[in-house]
Design goal:
In chain A, 0% of the residues lie in helices and 52% in strands. By secondary structure, chain A is mostly beta strands. The N and C termini of chain A lie far apart (36 Å). The model of chain A has no long low-confidence stretch (mean pLDDT 91). Chain B is globular and about 40 Å long. In chain B, 36% of the residues are buried. Classes of the chains: A mainly beta, B mainly beta. At the A-B interface, strand 3, strand 4 and strand 9 of A face strand 5, strand 9 and strand 10 of B.
């Protein structure tokens, strides 16, 4: 029962910004949004997370709307190595912290 | 720094055979540990999690079991594999401390049951 909705695939030109959208309209007030990416045949790699404020790190920026019903992951200068499946995840608390994975967005960076 | 190991990397097993996948974490103590399964072309499904030695919580009924015999060791097992057990199995850890709930994933084990 994924709590997020993402487009199944996107293309982005190398060197351009990649903007990956995510809808999480049923998110609760204390649930965080996490982003991971998975390159084929590898374990998911943590990118960034946030609650209500925009966040930035060395990999990406996360923009969360004021009503928290959607967010956008921004890769500022996409490279061929950013080609991967990107997962937007809501972290819920039920016994422990759990990630509810959807099917993600397959991003293809084009040369 | 912390590292997480999984082995084997790949495994081909006949239906009805037993299974044992191992996950170990280095560089941290008392982590929360997780087992996920990923079917082909799908997202990850949480199977088990553990907040301490001997403490296992199961998320979905299935043909698998998990054990945590040591603080930084997490084992996924089956007595008799089914075809539907094929998939990519991922172990993850988090610190379990407040503010440290980010999960970090291992390299995974690809299991093919024939």
């Amino acid at each position: 029962d994924a709590k997020t909705t993402q487009p199944p695939s996107m293309d982005c030109a190398e060197g351009r910004a990649a903007n990956l959208p995510c809808n999480h309209s049923t998110i609760s007030g204390n649930e965080y949004v996490y982003w991971y990416r998975q390159i084929h045949s590898q374990g998911p790699q943590y990118i960034i997370h946030g609650l209500k404020n925009n966040e930035t790190n060395e990999m990406a920026s996360l923009i969360i709307t004021e009503d928290r019903k959607s967010s956008t992951l921004i890769l500022p200068h996409a490279t061929l190595r950013d080609t991967a499946v990107y997962y937007c995840i809501v972290r819920v608390r039920s016994g422990t912290y759990k990630y509810i994975f959807g099917t993600g967005t397959r991003l293809k960076v084009l040369a | 720094s912390q590292t997480i190991h999984q082995w084997p990397a790949t495994l081909v097993q006949p239906v009805g055979s037993p299974l044992s996948l191992e996950c170990t974490v280095e560089g941290t103590s008392n982590p929360n540990l997780y087992w996920y399964r990923q079917a082909a072309g799908r997202g990850l499904q949480l199977l088990f999690y553990s907040v301490g030695i001997g403490q296992i919580s199961s998320e979905v009924p299935q043909n698998l079991s998990a054990s945590r015999p040591q603080d930084r060791q997490f084992i996924l097992s089956s007595k008799k594999l089914l075809l539907s057990d094929s998939g990519f199995y991922l172990c993850a850890w988090s610190s379990g401390l407040a503010g440290g709930e980010t999960q970090y994933f291992g390299p995974g084990t690809r299991l093919l049951v024939l």
